[in-house]
Amino acid sequence: MSDHALKFVILGEGRVGKTSILTRYFSKKFNEGEKSTVNPAFHEKKHTYNGKNFDLKFWDTAGQEQFNAINNMYYQNSVGALLVYDVTIPETFEKVKSWVNTLQEVVGKDIIFVIAGNKFDLAKKNMLDENKAQIDNYCEQEKCQHFYTSAKTGFNLEETFNSLITSVMKKMENENFGGNKKGRGRKLEIKEQSDVKEKKKCC
Q1: Is 112 domain-assigned?
Q2: What is the dihedral of CA 189, 11, 62, 8, to 10 degrees?
Q3: Of the candidates 117, 129, 11, the residue with the CA atom closest to the CA atom of residue 70
Q4: Predicted local confidence at residue 36, as pLDDT
Q5: How far apart are CA 36 and CA 138, in angstroms?
Q6: What sign does the dihedral 113-189-182-102 (CA atoms) show?
Q7: How would DSSP label each residue in 153-203?
Q8: Residue 50 in 3-state DSSP?
Q9: Domain that residue 52 falls in
Q10: Residue 187 placed within a domain
Q11: Which one of 31, 91, 142, 179 is separated from 131 by 20 to 30 angstroms, measured CA to CA?
Protein backbone atom coordinates (compact mmCIF):
# COMPACT_ATOMS: atom_id res chain seq x y z
CA MET A 1 0.00 0.00 0.00
CA SER A 2 1.30 3.44 -0.92
CA ASP A 3 1.92 6.09 1.72
CA HIS A 4 1.59 8.85 -0.86
CA ALA A 5 -0.05 9.25 -4.27
CA LEU A 6 1.86 11.79 -6.31
CA LYS A 7 0.90 13.48 -9.55
CA PHE A 8 3.33 14.42 -12.33
CA VAL A 9 2.42 16.11 -15.61
CA ILE A 10 4.14 16.09 -18.99
CA LEU A 11 3.89 19.28 -21.06
CA GLY A 12 4.99 20.59 -24.43
CA GLU A 13 3.76 21.40 -27.90
CA GLY A 14 1.99 18.80 -30.02
CA ARG A 15 4.15 16.23 -31.81
CA VAL A 16 7.30 16.78 -29.75
CA GLY A 17 7.05 13.17 -28.56
CA LYS A 18 5.50 13.42 -25.09
CA THR A 19 3.39 10.28 -25.41
CA SER A 20 6.23 8.35 -27.00
CA ILE A 21 8.54 9.27 -24.13
CA LEU A 22 6.04 7.90 -21.63
CA THR A 23 5.44 4.77 -23.70
CA ARG A 24 9.15 4.06 -24.13
CA TYR A 25 9.87 4.65 -20.44
CA PHE A 26 6.96 2.66 -19.03
CA SER A 27 6.42 0.00 -21.70
CA LYS A 28 9.82 -0.12 -23.44
CA LYS A 29 8.03 0.26 -26.78
CA PHE A 30 8.12 2.67 -29.68
CA ASN A 31 5.78 2.76 -32.65
CA GLU A 32 6.45 5.60 -35.04
CA GLY A 33 3.21 5.12 -36.95
CA GLU A 34 0.69 5.17 -34.10
CA LYS A 35 -1.61 8.13 -33.65
CA SER A 36 -2.79 9.84 -30.48
CA THR A 37 -6.36 10.22 -29.33
CA VAL A 38 -7.90 13.06 -27.34
CA ASN A 39 -8.57 10.94 -24.25
CA PRO A 40 -6.46 11.86 -21.22
CA ALA A 41 -4.41 9.03 -19.76
CA PHE A 42 -1.83 8.40 -17.09
CA HIS A 43 1.01 5.97 -16.57
CA GLU A 44 1.60 4.59 -13.10
CA LYS A 45 4.82 3.69 -11.30
CA LYS A 46 5.44 2.31 -7.81
CA HIS A 47 8.42 3.89 -6.08
CA THR A 48 10.07 3.47 -2.68
CA TYR A 49 12.14 6.21 -1.11
CA ASN A 50 13.66 6.03 2.38
CA GLY A 51 11.22 3.37 3.48
CA LYS A 52 8.13 5.15 2.19
CA ASN A 53 6.01 3.82 -0.66
CA PHE A 54 4.81 6.10 -3.43
CA ASP A 55 2.27 5.73 -6.21
CA LEU A 56 3.57 7.98 -9.01
CA LYS A 57 1.13 8.92 -11.76
CA PHE A 58 2.36 10.67 -14.90
CA TRP A 59 -0.45 12.43 -16.74
CA ASP A 60 -0.37 12.91 -20.51
CA THR A 61 -2.18 15.79 -22.21
CA ALA A 62 -3.39 13.39 -24.93
CA GLY A 63 -3.13 16.03 -27.62
CA GLN A 64 -5.28 18.55 -25.77
CA GLU A 65 -2.59 21.22 -26.13
CA GLN A 66 -3.36 21.33 -29.85
CA PHE A 67 -6.88 22.52 -29.10
CA ASN A 68 -6.03 24.84 -26.17
CA ALA A 69 -8.12 22.47 -24.07
CA ILE A 70 -5.82 22.23 -21.05
CA ASN A 71 -7.31 23.94 -18.00
CA ASN A 72 -6.00 24.58 -14.52
CA MET A 73 -7.37 21.28 -13.21
CA TYR A 74 -4.75 19.46 -15.26
CA TYR A 75 -1.93 21.12 -13.33
CA GLN A 76 -3.42 21.16 -9.84
CA ASN A 77 -1.78 19.01 -7.15
CA SER A 78 1.22 18.30 -9.37
CA VAL A 79 4.46 17.72 -7.51
CA GLY A 80 6.62 17.64 -10.64
CA ALA A 81 6.56 18.11 -14.40
CA LEU A 82 8.45 17.03 -17.47
CA LEU A 83 8.65 19.74 -20.16
CA VAL A 84 9.39 18.41 -23.64
CA TYR A 85 10.53 20.10 -26.85
CA ASP A 86 11.74 18.85 -30.22
CA VAL A 87 15.46 19.49 -30.80
CA THR A 88 14.86 19.57 -34.56
CA ILE A 89 12.39 22.46 -34.17
CA PRO A 90 14.05 25.17 -32.02
CA GLU A 91 10.77 27.10 -31.75
CA THR A 92 9.34 24.37 -29.55
CA PHE A 93 11.89 25.25 -26.86
CA GLU A 94 10.54 28.80 -26.80
CA LYS A 95 7.10 27.31 -26.20
CA VAL A 96 8.48 25.44 -23.20
CA LYS A 97 8.94 28.78 -21.48
CA SER A 98 5.25 29.59 -21.77
CA TRP A 99 4.33 26.15 -20.44
CA VAL A 100 6.62 26.74 -17.47
CA ASN A 101 5.02 30.12 -16.80
CA THR A 102 1.53 28.61 -16.81
CA LEU A 103 2.62 25.72 -14.61
CA GLN A 104 4.19 28.07 -12.06
CA GLU A 105 1.17 30.38 -12.06
CA VAL A 106 -1.15 27.50 -11.18
CA VAL A 107 1.00 25.32 -8.93
CA GLY A 108 3.61 27.73 -7.57
CA LYS A 109 7.13 28.91 -8.33
CA ASP A 110 8.73 26.06 -6.37
CA ILE A 111 7.33 23.30 -8.58
CA ILE A 112 10.03 20.80 -9.60
CA PHE A 113 10.44 20.33 -13.34
CA VAL A 114 12.93 18.86 -15.80
CA ILE A 115 13.28 19.78 -19.49
CA ALA A 116 13.79 17.13 -22.17
CA GLY A 117 15.08 17.92 -25.65
CA ASN A 118 13.52 15.00 -27.50
CA LYS A 119 14.30 13.41 -30.90
CA PHE A 120 18.04 13.57 -30.22
CA ASP A 121 18.47 10.71 -32.69
CA LEU A 122 17.48 13.16 -35.47
CA ALA A 123 19.52 16.12 -34.27
CA LYS A 124 22.37 17.71 -36.17
CA LYS A 125 25.35 18.80 -34.09
CA ASN A 126 25.42 22.35 -35.44
CA MET A 127 21.77 22.83 -34.49
CA LEU A 128 22.44 21.65 -30.94
CA ASP A 129 25.48 23.88 -30.65
CA GLU A 130 23.52 26.93 -31.84
CA ASN A 131 20.90 26.54 -29.13
CA LYS A 132 23.05 25.25 -26.28
CA ALA A 133 23.87 28.62 -24.72
CA GLN A 134 20.24 29.73 -24.71
CA ILE A 135 19.09 26.46 -23.15
CA ASP A 136 21.86 26.45 -20.55
CA ASN A 137 21.08 30.03 -19.54
CA TYR A 138 17.38 29.34 -19.17
CA CYS A 139 17.92 26.18 -17.13
CA GLU A 140 20.38 27.98 -14.87
CA GLN A 141 17.86 30.77 -14.38
CA GLU A 142 15.07 28.33 -13.54
CA LYS A 143 17.35 25.98 -11.57
CA CYS A 144 16.18 22.95 -13.51
CA GLN A 145 17.88 20.00 -15.19
CA HIS A 146 18.00 19.53 -18.96
CA PHE A 147 18.50 16.27 -20.85
CA TYR A 148 18.65 15.36 -24.51
CA THR A 149 16.39 12.35 -25.05
CA SER A 150 15.16 9.99 -27.74
CA ALA A 151 11.87 8.17 -27.36
CA LYS A 152 12.85 6.07 -30.38
CA THR A 153 16.09 4.70 -28.92
CA GLY A 154 15.38 5.24 -25.23
CA PHE A 155 18.44 7.49 -24.92
CA ASN A 156 18.62 9.26 -21.54
CA LEU A 157 15.04 8.50 -20.51
CA GLU A 158 16.00 6.65 -17.34
CA GLU A 159 18.29 9.52 -16.36
CA THR A 160 15.61 12.12 -17.10
CA PHE A 161 12.86 10.45 -15.06
CA ASN A 162 15.25 9.54 -12.25
CA SER A 163 16.34 13.17 -12.01
CA LEU A 164 12.75 14.40 -11.82
CA ILE A 165 11.58 11.78 -9.33
CA THR A 166 14.66 12.09 -7.10
CA SER A 167 14.43 15.91 -7.04
CA VAL A 168 10.78 15.69 -5.95
CA MET A 169 11.60 13.09 -3.28
CA LYS A 170 14.40 15.21 -1.84
CA LYS A 171 12.20 18.30 -1.77
CA MET A 172 9.42 16.43 -0.01
CA GLU A 173 11.90 14.95 2.45
CA ASN A 174 13.13 18.45 3.29
CA GLU A 175 9.51 19.39 3.94
CA ASN A 176 9.14 16.30 6.15
CA PHE A 177 6.58 14.97 3.71
CA GLY A 178 4.18 17.64 4.89
CA GLY A 179 1.78 19.77 2.91
CA ASN A 180 2.19 23.41 1.92
CA LYS A 181 -0.22 26.08 0.80
CA LYS A 182 -0.55 24.50 -2.64
CA GLY A 183 -1.28 21.09 -1.18
CA ARG A 184 1.85 19.45 -2.56
CA GLY A 185 3.87 16.98 -0.55
CA ARG A 186 1.01 15.36 1.34
CA LYS A 187 -0.97 12.28 0.51
CA LEU A 188 -2.98 13.18 -2.54
CA GLU A 189 -6.27 11.58 -3.38
CA ILE A 190 -6.14 11.66 -7.16
CA LYS A 191 -9.59 11.36 -8.63
CA GLU A 192 -9.51 9.25 -11.74
CA GLN A 193 -12.14 10.07 -14.33
CA SER A 194 -14.22 7.16 -15.54
CA ASP A 195 -13.42 8.02 -19.15
CA VAL A 196 -9.65 7.86 -18.72
CA LYS A 197 -8.46 5.29 -21.22
CA GLU A 198 -5.19 3.80 -22.31
CA LYS A 199 -4.63 5.64 -25.55
CA LYS A 200 -2.87 4.93 -28.78
CA LYS A 201 0.59 6.38 -28.88
CA CYS A 202 2.16 8.89 -31.18
CA CYS A 203 5.65 10.16 -32.18
Answers
A1: yes
A2: -20
A3: 11
A4: 57
A5: 30
A6: positive
A7: T-TTHHHHHHHHHHHHHHHHHHTTT---TT-TTS---PPPPTT--PPPP--
A8: coil
A9: 4-174
A10: no
A11: 31
Burial of 103 (0-12, 13-18, 19+ CB in 10 A): buried
92 close to 13: Cβ distance less than 8 angstroms: yes
Sites in the chain below the pLDDT cut of 50: 37, 178-203
Total tally of structural domains belonging to the chain:
1
Closest CA to 77 of 14, 7, 181, 157: 7
Beta strand segments in the chain, E: 4-11, 41-49, 52-60, 78-86, 112-118, 145-148
- Residue 202 located in a structural domain: no
The pTM of this model reads 0.83
- pLDDT on residue 70: 73
DSSP 4: E
User: Which CATH number characterizes residue 94's domain?
Assistant: 3.40.50.300
pLDDT of residue 182: 42
Predicted local confidence at residue 33, as pLDDT: 64
pLDDT at site 195: 42
Rounded Cα–Cα distance for residues 95 and 86 (Å): 10
